[in-house]
Amino acid sequence: MAKRIDVSGLHVYYGDFLAVEDVSMTIEPRSVTAFIGSSGCGKSTFLRTLNRMHEVTPGARAEGKVLLDDMDIYSPDVDPVMVRSEVGMVFQKANPFPTMSIYDNVIAGARLNNKRMKKSEADDLVEESLRGANLWEEVKDRLNKPGSGLSGGQQQRLCIARATAVKPSVLLMDEPCSALDPISTLAVEDLIHKMKEDYTIVIVTHNMQQAARVSDRTAFFNLSAPGKPGKLVEMGETNKIFTRPDKQETENYITGRFG
Amino acid sequence: MSTTTQPPATERELRRGSLHRHFPAALLAACAAVVAGILLAFSSFGLVVWGLLTAASYAIVVVAVSAGVEGGRKAKDRLVTTLVYGCFVLAMLPLVSVLWTVLGYGLDRFDGYFLSVSMNGVLPSMDAGGVYHAIVGTLAITGMATLISVPIGVMTAVYLVEYARGRMKKTIMFFVDVMTGIPSIVAGLFVVALWMILFGPGVTNGAAGAISLSVLMIPVVVRSSEEMLRLVPQDLREASYALGVPKWRTITKVVLPTSAAGLTTGIMLAIARVIGETAPLILTAGTSAVAINWNLFDGQMMSLPVFIYAQVRMGGAVNYERAWAAALTLIIVVMLLFFLARMIGRLFAPKAR
Amino acid sequence: MTMTDAPEAGTPPRGKRRIGDTVFAGLARGSGILILVILAGVAAFLVIQAWPSLRANTANFFLETGWDPNVRENPSFGVAALAFGTVLAAAIALLLATPVAIGISLFIVFYAPRRLAAVLGYLVDLLAAIPSVVYGLWGIGFLAPQLVPVYSAAARHLGWIPLFAGPASTSARTILTAGIVLAVMVLPIITAMSRDVFHQVPQGHREAALAMGATRWEMIRLAVLPFGRSGIVGGAMLGLGRALGETMAVAMILSPSLAISWNLLQSGNQTIAAHIALQYPEATGYGVSALIAAGLVLFAITLVVNMGARYIVARGSKESR
């Protein structure tokens, strides 16, 4: 199920502007990897290159290699649509489809690949995904109500259920808790903890306590200088990054002296 | 069909057959060539038939090939892409066709003579005469309509943006919307009814035409001016109030000048919209004026659009020639207004946002 | 004019300024109210002038198909055939234009290269800039002759469908041709509305669809079309309002006759607006009053359609927030 991601020599451009420079890293399967760094340092941009979502932004392009197990997702014969069903994504702002019910939201992605899914199969998949997202007990009696009626935290977990219903092997999360209150944040963090048994999880966060709480490994991104491209400063065991990082730059950021 | 145990993720194939980036363009060219060849072989080449058959054969082939190579979902995506591009091309056909035919037929008679003489003393079937009187009428009627509509329209917009609150504001905005939807012929009938009460039946003159055009023009001016006034940043108004400038001076000296370019654009587009109106003028300004008439309040007044209509109703070959040439004149005027308006909007727009 | 002499040197500024404010505010408010007065006037004068003929009418105004009001006594006329023709022409226009307009808006917002999109949008707007009388001239002088062979082919092969029953008109000056030209004319209106709502689809919804592995079309189906539905419907209804009231293109193209006919390939219909434009110059007796009555019916229909459109659009934009 979960897959390893190997990035080597990746550059990201917006038109002529180099946004992220020369990133190489390995993301381990069945673990949570956190990306931290000040805003605008390119960590979200980089995250989006891991499932080719950056291509949605006009003018954005990436150069380099991203291997999913052994498959280069940038190889010319690879279909970005298939990449995205293999590498799911959860966004900063919960974005359930407003016109769809909770049930339809969860099943939307799976239906794309399998039009003639039987009712019972669909029911099972919805229940499985919602249970996986710790949401089943809260919504099982109102599956046909619109997803937009849920609280912010529930909506975000609905989006996670929607992403996992496609059965990806990797789940990318772009600041999934930044719009949530502390209790909802805790619920999502618990969920991340549970899900790493099945998925490779990458989470971008502004909140260093959160990175320390949920991740196994942490990568620190920073701008080389104002106006210059972002780069990967260092990456390692979360414990190590937060207690005795190799680089002074990282320590400055962790201890709040910078950023 | 066993999908609850979804395709094991490890075996999902990312690498799917996909068509080459340039395949669609190449295929389109090939279809065009083949269809042209077949049509020529049957010596029945026609631009429209050729275009339609090319599009249809391209759509069929690309969907079939894509379904084979890339699978059903991708094939559907390509079908929709083809349709969406096709819709745009389809919409451009009438535009190009209208402009092309008007230019083609209109140029026959479009010259200095045509623009500088009236139809006074010219029998409908004579090979003579021009549109000078219609140009005069169009200028006079549209000018008067503009003089009526701009103050009312802009002041209403000022009222809506700067003064109105609550129910009154909602009511006026709603009825401005309603007014936008009045059919032009009904605006003409309104003035007919009004004139019957004021001056008795059968009185037609340029002023009546101008008023009916105003009914159509005012809501357009209100809507566009309102939009422009809302773009003026609140800070500017507050800065002015802070200097002790009263509200009405703030509006006339700060708000209106700031949005002048936008207001001008909106007004010119509104003029472009009414300058081609025909139906209300048929009812109010008459269809049979042949001489130059600068007096808005006395007698029938010809205008370019009504001239086109009247000539078509006469139906002879020379009438059609005049109609096409007049249509060319009208289109040139409208397009000039349209592009000038856009250019003013572009060049002088305050850098909003 | 009062405002120009407001602040004068040597006069107490405060009082004068207040007057300027009062006058200016009054002018602004007056303009707003004047619009309400004009609109009320349109309705009132139409009713007043329509009344004499409606009272003298010997036929049922809503059921009669004939039109014989140009007499001094016992006029007989009705809008049944005209109303039918009006709705039929507008329906044809809408049926043809709406799918194309949706396609164009999708093209401009999601498919066209970014840099070209604005220019291509202008091109569609240009369709709205061409005066209706020019469309009429184009319809009768160019399009109709082109359609003659198409119509006779349609009558030959599709004649078993009542809509296309032969023999086809030899001039192609039929309700279908008028409907096609009307479709071209309402295309930019519907396109503008649906383009606006497609632009408003939150990026989050589009990305959500793409991120779970949707193709571009699947993204549109999941995130864009459901979101944009009210805008499309509202735009189509605004287009309907325009098509119902359009005069010149129909008046010039259609060879009129006052029947209720479903046949698209033969002349046999007429619309209210075109009928008014054609009959007005020859109207005598109760004629003008009867035409005003017909105009009143058109006014009422377009009013209802336009108000419905605004309501749907407003409700849609409220829901999406």
From TrEMBL, chain A:
<dbReference type="GO" id="GO:0016020">
    <property type="term" value="C:membrane"/>
</dbReference>
<keyword id="KW-0547">Nucleotide-binding</keyword>
<dbReference type="GO" id="GO:0005315">
    <property type="term" value="F:phosphate transmembrane transporter activity"/>
</dbReference>
<keyword id="KW-0813">Transport</keyword>
<dbReference type="InterPro" id="IPR005670">
    <property type="entry name" value="PstB-like"/>
</dbReference>
<keyword id="KW-0067">ATP-binding</keyword>
<dbReference type="InterPro" id="IPR003593">
    <property type="entry name" value="AAA+_ATPase"/>
</dbReference>
<keyword id="KW-1278">Translocase</keyword>
<dbReference type="InterPro" id="IPR017871">
    <property type="entry name" value="ABC_transporter-like_CS"/>
</dbReference>
<protein>
    <submittedName>
        <fullName>Phosphate transport system ATP-binding protein</fullName>
    </submittedName>
</protein>
<dbReference type="GO" id="GO:0005524">
    <property type="term" value="F:ATP binding"/>
</dbReference>
<dbReference type="InterPro" id="IPR027417">
    <property type="entry name" value="P-loop_NTPase"/>
</dbReference>
<dbReference type="GO" id="GO:0016887">
    <property type="term" value="F:ATP hydrolysis activity"/>
</dbReference>
<dbReference type="GO" id="GO:0035435">
    <property type="term" value="P:phosphate ion transmembrane transport"/>
</dbReference>
<feature type="domain" description="ABC transporter">
    <location>
        <begin position="5"/>
        <end position="248"/>
    </location>
</feature>
UniProtKB/TrEMBL annotation, chain B:
<feature type="transmembrane region" description="Helical">
    <location>
        <begin position="323"/>
        <end position="344"/>
    </location>
</feature>
<keyword id="KW-0592">Phosphate transport</keyword>
<keyword id="KW-1003">Cell membrane</keyword>
<feature type="transmembrane region" description="Helical">
    <location>
        <begin position="203"/>
        <end position="222"/>
    </location>
</feature>
<feature type="transmembrane region" description="Helical">
    <location>
        <begin position="48"/>
        <end position="67"/>
    </location>
</feature>
<feature type="transmembrane region" description="Helical">
    <location>
        <begin position="22"/>
        <end position="42"/>
    </location>
</feature>
<dbReference type="InterPro" id="IPR005672">
    <property type="entry name" value="Phosphate_PstA"/>
</dbReference>
<dbReference type="InterPro" id="IPR035906">
    <property type="entry name" value="MetI-like_sf"/>
</dbReference>
<dbReference type="GO" id="GO:0035435">
    <property type="term" value="P:phosphate ion transmembrane transport"/>
</dbReference>
<feature type="domain" description="ABC transmembrane type-1">
    <location>
        <begin position="135"/>
        <end position="341"/>
    </location>
</feature>
<dbReference type="InterPro" id="IPR051408">
    <property type="entry name" value="Phosphate_transprt_permease"/>
</dbReference>
<dbReference type="InterPro" id="IPR000515">
    <property type="entry name" value="MetI-like"/>
</dbReference>
<feature type="transmembrane region" description="Helical">
    <location>
        <begin position="172"/>
        <end position="197"/>
    </location>
</feature>
<dbReference type="Pfam" id="PF00528">
    <property type="entry name" value="BPD_transp_1"/>
</dbReference>
<feature type="transmembrane region" description="Helical">
    <location>
        <begin position="79"/>
        <end position="103"/>
    </location>
</feature>
UniProtKB/TrEMBL annotation, chain C:
<feature type="domain" description="ABC transmembrane type-1">
    <location>
        <begin position="83"/>
        <end position="309"/>
    </location>
</feature>
<keyword id="KW-0472">Membrane</keyword>
<dbReference type="GO" id="GO:0005315">
    <property type="term" value="F:phosphate transmembrane transporter activity"/>
</dbReference>
<feature type="transmembrane region" description="Helical">
    <location>
        <begin position="219"/>
        <end position="240"/>
    </location>
</feature>
<keyword id="KW-0592">Phosphate transport</keyword>
<comment type="similarity">
    <text>Belongs to the binding-protein-dependent transport system permease family. CysTW subfamily.</text>
</comment>
<feature type="transmembrane region" description="Helical">
    <location>
        <begin position="285"/>
        <end position="313"/>
    </location>
</feature>
<dbReference type="Pfam" id="PF00528">
    <property type="entry name" value="BPD_transp_1"/>
</dbReference>
<feature type="transmembrane region" description="Helical">
    <location>
        <begin position="23"/>
        <end position="48"/>
    </location>
</feature>
<protein>
    <recommendedName>
        <fullName>Phosphate transport system permease protein</fullName>
    </recommendedName>
</protein>
<dbReference type="GO" id="GO:0006817">
    <property type="term" value="P:phosphate ion transport"/>
</dbReference>
<keyword id="KW-0813">Transport</keyword>
<feature type="transmembrane region" description="Helical">
    <location>
        <begin position="77"/>
        <end position="110"/>
    </location>
</feature>
<keyword id="KW-0812">Transmembrane</keyword>
<dbReference type="GO" id="GO:0005886">
    <property type="term" value="C:plasma membrane"/>
</dbReference>
